[in-house]
Amino acid sequence: MPPALFTTLPQPPTLTHQSPKDYIIDPRENIIIHCEAKGKPHPSFSWTRNGTHFDIDQDPNVNMRPHSGTMVVDISREKVEHYEGVYQCTARNKHGTAVSNNIVVRQSRSPLWSKERIKPIVVQEGVSLVLPCRPPAGLPPPIIFWMDNSKDYTHLITRVSQSLNGDLYFSNVLREDSRNDYICYARFPHTQTIQQKQPITVKVLNRKSDCARVDERRPTFLTPSGPSSSKMVLRGQVLEMECIAEGLPTPEISWTKISGDLPAKRTAFLHYQKTLRIVNVSESDAGDYRCTARNRHGFVHHTIHVTVKAAPYWISGAPKNLVLAPGENGVLTCRASGTPKPSITWAMNGIPIENSPKDFSRKVEDDTVIFTDVQVGSSAVYQCNVSNDYGYLLSNAFVNVLSEPPRVLTPAHKVYQVIRNHQALIDCTSFGSPIPKITWFKDSRASTLDGDPYILHDNGTLEIHVAQMHNSGKYTCVARNTLGISENHVYLEVKEPTRILKQPEYKIVQRGRSVVFECKVKHDPSLIPTMTWLKDDGELPDDERLIVDSDSLTITDVTENDAGVYTCIMNTTLDHDSASAELTVRNLSLPLPRKQPDPPTDLELTDQKKRSVQITWTPGDEHNSPIQKFLIQYEDSLHHRGHWHNLTEVPGTKTTAHLKLSPYAQYTFRVMALNAVGYSRPSFPSRVYKTEPAAPDENPTGVQGFGTEHNNLVISWKPLSGLQSNGPGLHYRVMWRQKFLDSEWTSVTVANNSKFVVSGTPTFVPYELKVQAVNDYGAGPEPVIAHGYSGEDLPVAAPENVQAMILNSTLAEVHWDPVPAKLIRGHLKGYKVYYWRERSLHKHNPHHVEKQILTFSGNHTRGMLPGLHAFSLYSFNVRVYNGKGEGPASPTQKFETPEGVPSAPSSLVITNSNLDSLTLEWNPPHDRNGRLTGYTLKYQPVNNSNELGPVEELALPANETSVTLLNLKYSTRYKFYLNAKTVRGAGPAISQEAVTIMDEGKSLNAEHDLHSMHLIWLQMLSILLSLWSAVASRQVDIATQGWFIGLMCAIALLILILLIICFIQRNKGGKYPVKEKEDAHTDPEFQPMKEEDCTFGEYSDNEDHKPLKGSRTPSNGTVKRDDSDDSLVDYGEGGDGQFNEDGSFIGQYSGKSASRDTAEGHESSEAPSPINAMNSLNSFV
């Protein structure tokens, strides 16, 4: 409503400005309490103070501003305290009375600090410290900060904190904290004054010596105290919680909300995470919050229980003024909420409504006042007061009963101008009481304008969606109510659109020549056009060579700088059109290249049907490049004006096309030609071809159902486009029902939208869904049934019968029973196994807890936990999860992994290398993976050709970390292998090499003795072979012959004597001695180096990667008669390369016998043993 009209109508008072409810004033300035109001007639004002009438005229220090209720108090002659109190303003005229809020006036206070003597504080380095501030209570409360005598702020860091009450906290003090000027300041913002506390001296005592270590400790909270606390905050306010902890090293603080997630957009962490701030608090922020202080010695929790209360607040806004005509009905609504629930009271003209004069047209129902058949004289101002323990809302809303004849407010004879095929809006703004009814007429008043192509809006505006030339003319707007009639005449002029008939064309010109761009335009004769040229979307250069005419642009003496894109723009007061062309400048006179074709012309529409039409055209010039195809485009001015869409393509040899069309569209067509250079410019558009409306041919696609909350179902679909609607009034019929219940379909009609929300559904229930398109001409085909589910909720059950099966030392398999589908309450996504290593079962390994999660998507009932640590205690639980989240955890289970093989010893060092001995020292494995049962040391010589000799083996107890090897070969390189063992077997070996010191004399003697023994052994074998051949030729059973038994005993005695000689020879310094200690520690249960294939693996280490020729694998010294392939041949001339029963190193380093003889000479590979000798004999038998 125009303000000028508003001021001429009777109106009850309306407050426009008032002071805040809590009004804190500066005691140094005059008191100004605002109260402004409007009304017709202008209202008068009065005040109450502390509930009683305040006679302003009787107080010489108080006056009221003219034509206003604002009260000004001069305090130059009276103390401010005299005027503190509760004030309320009243504005009244003959139509009603409005009242202000209760304005509590208080002066700001900035009291001084009480005098006190503060003793110096002496503390030991590393302890915590709190410096109290305790500022004086001010109004409003002061802002606290700490400084020193130099006015430098105290640096607040992770170790030093200022709490919300102003105290200064030290999580642990350092020597540099010693100072005598810790000063707490309080700034009172209202009076802009600052008060300071007496300086505090802090002295930090050093330890007795610089070497004395400060004792570290786990965190404890300085504030708040205890394990939990509570806090209340009002809705809409700022919630601040703090946790300050002491400890050494300085603890770090973190926050979580136990009962939900922190609101990310409203949450901030301040003061190095010690303060959690949530702004604009809502009821959802209530709950338990946990702060955690943590350092490397441990952690501590504190839980803060937050409750959110709410002063009253409007749900749908304050009550709104009512303007009613006599006999009309109306409602005043005062809808508010709060915590606790507020009470609502009504007053009329400042008097409680129960004490007001009776009015049978008025009925009060809680938060609503209902008016029925109001009459003149019922105007009044109603006050709604909503209050609870935390505040109140007071709102004024008037009911103005007016009896006014209609008035048309739109200026008379106003002229509206629009472009053809554009929208036209003709206004008819009116006022009256009762509200006038608007009707429109054109030219003569033969009939009202209602229905296509006219649309009448509620505010009286007449819309023509697509204006045509015949819509021009005189329009009459008539406003009428029971008190009269008013009319107004306006005019609509429909103008022809501005169009560029001849567009500028692409030009190639030689430097120094001239070029002309043409831009011929057609426009409405009544509109004045303005031509503008641009170069590369910017203004034309200020150059006299560029000449602009009414329909062309000429460039003379062209240079390379003139190259670019030129655009002509034709503007009128209503529309514009533009076209562009490119200029290319060449230095040499080259033949012009082929160009894109000219646009087709003479578009004609024939064979017109409801859903098809035939279009023909005349091709343009090909410009030396044959036309390959034609592209037909359309514009639908009814649904998508100004946008051209591709419709179809035809070969370049055709000049006609049959076009399939959709109902309810206004088509305009154009054609473009394509040759090898590119597309032509579009042809001039065809005439408009309108198709008739029809019912929809199709329904929306992509129908699906899902829930955003646990109790709703969101049905969504891909809406039809305007072209697919087939007619006006497109809407959708949405239908749903629970699956499997065979119930009736629930149906609702939805406007042109893409979703509908069904509330109050059960959680995660299957639904059948249908969405059907409907317009004013009927419904679409029967829709296909889609399926969906209502909203998910978190699972309520945990998997049962959870158990773990230990497969090996690093792998376990977890089994569980699936959670019933009805308890999952959503789409089953899978199961999550939370597991963590509690500790190692070995005392040497540290305590270690690190949670890991394995997710098993789908309906699994078991899962593998790989990569476990051997000999450890694990805990785990299982949870099901759906699209909403995880369910509760199953009871935590524990399992122990068995022992595994240990890792290699962490180091192996060779020391004290002498002529025939050396010492090996090592450290235990880093990962024991069980209880160590001992070590196995194997070593073998390596000759100058990198060939490996036989292996010696030594078993060592688990508690040893060094061993000395005696009787080694002089000036010989040895390869050592050391591995650790548990009950599960031997782990990988660590290797090392060393060389003994040379003594040539002893070395030669040892070699000669060993060679002699080797010859004796071979002679004995030759005799045994001859004897066996002779016996076998007699073909008799000799097992019972006495002489044969005696011969066998003699042979056994001979072998025993030879073995004794061999052992004595070895102890005198042979090439490969065996220490006495080996026999004492030989482990008959020795396992191979590798658990998987029972082999040592290849001979290699980190220090020597050279290949070793003719080498053999280390033997474990255990030979079984039935399984071994060893024979004397393996230790002499060589055989198939096999060396021991575990098969390790077989063939990897085996060389030919010639090379071995050459490399080793008369060196024996190993001293014979009785077992080997017997096995050799059995091979002949």
From TrEMBL:
Q: Where is the composition biased (Polar residues)?
A: 1172-1181
Q: Per UniProt, which keywords does this protein have?
A: Cell adhesion, Cell membrane, Developmental protein, Differentiation, Disulfide bond, Glycoprotein, Immunoglobulin domain, Membrane, Neurogenesis, Phosphoprotein, Repeat, Signal, Transmembrane, Transmembrane helix
Q: Which domain of life is it from?
A: Eukaryota
Known Gene3D superfamilies for this protein? Immunoglobulins
Ranges that cross the membrane: 1043-1064
Q: Where is this region: Disordered?
A: 1095-1181
Annotated GO MF terms: cell-cell adhesion mediator activity
Name of the protein in question: Neuronal cell adhesion molecule-like
Q: Which organism is it from?
A: Sphaeramia orbicularis (orbiculate cardinalfish)
